[in-house]
């Protein structure tokens, strides 16, 4: 009688073990499948794949993106030392040294500077070189400018006539303005009168409240406007100086310049300029790499916010990848590191992987199903800003002869991301 009971107990024990094995196998299978479908489990590899775009594909994306950018081309017309480069510095916030290095020959008599990069420009400045030297140079310059302007482009264009407050020998400039105005009446023109401090009375050693209420300034400003009558749409007084000149603020009249440009440009381009200048642009600029780097980061963040809200003919994530790889390359150049797109992509993925997995994986869960279509403009701008801050830490460590610290980079990105989300909220 005991044998059946023993057999029954043995069978029951085997059934229990079998059930446990079944439950265990089921749990392991479910866990494994959950991990396969869980975006956080593979998020690091996903980020590496995003930034591993081929150079050919990157070039293709950037070509398409450029067609969507609210790019403004400012043609700077003025004699040497009239303050044209200072206007570029005021609108971009980039240091004088970088502005000087950034201009490249465009034609025989013009140079061109694209900000924040040649691949993705929000602002393009075409500067006249040697204006007023000879009659022949003036004729050549007019022909070159007309040739440039005949090329079809989607960019918004604006002429900026730059005249020093105490310079009345402007016949060559007026000749150019007359011919361009006659040929292209649809392109708006801003008359920028500069170097105001050169007419300040001896008892004034700093900028007065803007606009300056000084008879010397008023008299000269009225005379210049009369001399260029009918050739401009708006006129503005500016005095953009260097830190060592001792005037405060350095960019005196910057807000007026911004507002006048906004009145002359289409809405999208106007909004981009406002966003570029809204972050303490009028304050004194430091010479630290991080301060200058943030000006570039801001520009790329504005681009990301703009494009994330535009329905492009391809997924948003490749677009953001292209923007961010370009940004890392530009920041690398700032810190003395010349990078290929592949190298920039590798650095971006190395910086971004851990940050994505540990800081904003929660955000990614919301966007994985659409792989980009659900990314809000504010999120795109905030993440671009955070990646730029991380890149500055990375390149800063390399410049100082240190090995980049992943934890320091991640902490900088997390802090930057949270603050940038608030800043770009509503974009």
Layout of helices and strands:
Blueprint: H1 2-37, H2 43-51, H3 55-68, E1 72-78, H4 84-92, H5 96-102, E2 104-105, E3 110-116, E4 121-128, H6 135-149, E5 156-164, H7 171-183, E6 189-194, H8 215-227, E7 234-237, E8 239-240, E9 251-252, H9 254-264, H10 267-277, H11 289-308, H12 316-334, H13 341-359, H14 361-367, H15 377-399, H16 406-423
Parallel strand pairs: 1-4, 1-5, 5-6, 6-7
Antiparallel strand pairs: 2-3, 3-4, 8-9
Helix pairs in contact: 2-13, 3-12, 6-7, 9-10, 11-12, 11-15, 12-13, 12-15, 13-15, 13-16, 15-16
CATH class label of the largest domain:
Alpha Beta
Order of helices and strands: HHHEHHEEEHEHEHEEEHHHHHHHH
Give a quick account of the main beta sheet: strands, pairing sense, barrel closure. 7 strands, mixed
Give Rg in angstroms.
29 Å
Helicity range: 55-70%
Question: What labels describe this entry?
Answer:
single chain; 427 residues; alpha/beta; Rossmann fold; 7-stranded mixed sheet; two-stranded antiparallel sheet; globular; disordered N terminus
């Amino acid at each position: 009688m005991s044998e059946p009971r023993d057999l029954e107990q043995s069978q029951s024990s085997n059934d229990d073990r079998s059930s446990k094995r079944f439950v265990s196998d089921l749990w392991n299978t479910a866990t494994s499948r959950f991990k396969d479908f869980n975006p956080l489990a593979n998020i690091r590899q996903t980020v590496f794949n995003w930034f591993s775009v081929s150079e050919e594909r990157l070039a293709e994306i950037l070509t398409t993106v450029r067609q969507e950018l609210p790019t403004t081309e400012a043609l700077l017309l003025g004699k040497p030392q009239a303050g044209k480069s200072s206007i570029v510095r005021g609108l971009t916030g980039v240091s004088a040294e970088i502005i000087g290095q950034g201009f490249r020959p465009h034609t025989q008599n013009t140079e061109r500077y694209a900000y924040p990069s040649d691949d993705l420009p929000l602002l393009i400045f075409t500067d006249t070189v040697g204006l007023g030297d000879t009659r022949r140079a003036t004729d050549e310059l007019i022909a070159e400018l007309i040739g440039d302007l005949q090329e079809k482009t989607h960019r918004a264009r604006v002429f900026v006539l730059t005249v020093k407050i105490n310079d009345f020998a402007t016949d060559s400039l007026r000749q150019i303005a007359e011919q361009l105005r006659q040929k292209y009446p649809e392109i708006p023109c801003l008359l920028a009168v500069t170097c105001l401090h050169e007419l300040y009375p001896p008892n004034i050693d700093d900028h007065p409240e803007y606009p300056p209420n000084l008879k010397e300034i008023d008299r000269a400003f009225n005379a210049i406007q009369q001399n260029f009558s009918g050739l401009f749409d708006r006129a503005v007084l500016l005095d953009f100086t260097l830190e060592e000149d001792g005037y405060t603020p350095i960019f005196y009249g910057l807000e007026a310049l911004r507002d006048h440009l906004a009145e002359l440009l289409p809405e999208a381009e106007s909004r981009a300029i406002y966003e570029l200048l809204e972050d303490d642009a009028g304050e004194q600029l430091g010479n630290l790499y991080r301060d200058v780097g943030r000006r570039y980061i801001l520009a790329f963040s504005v681009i990301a916010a703009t494009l994330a809200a535009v329905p492009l003919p391809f997924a948003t994530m490749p677009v953001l990848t292209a923007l961010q790889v370009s940004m890392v390359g530009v920041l690398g150049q700032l810190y003395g590191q010349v990078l290929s797109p592949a190298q920039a992509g590798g650095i971006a993925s190395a910086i971004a992987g851990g940050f994505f997995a540990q800081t904003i994986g929660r955000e990614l869960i919301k966007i994985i199903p659409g792989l980009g279509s659900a990314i809000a403009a504010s999120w795109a701008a905030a993440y671009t800003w955070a990646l730029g801050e991380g890149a500055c830490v990375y390149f800063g460590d390399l410049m100082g002869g240190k090995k980049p610290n992943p934890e320091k980079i991640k902490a900088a990105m997390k802090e930057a991301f949270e603050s940038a989300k608030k800043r770009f909220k509503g974009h």
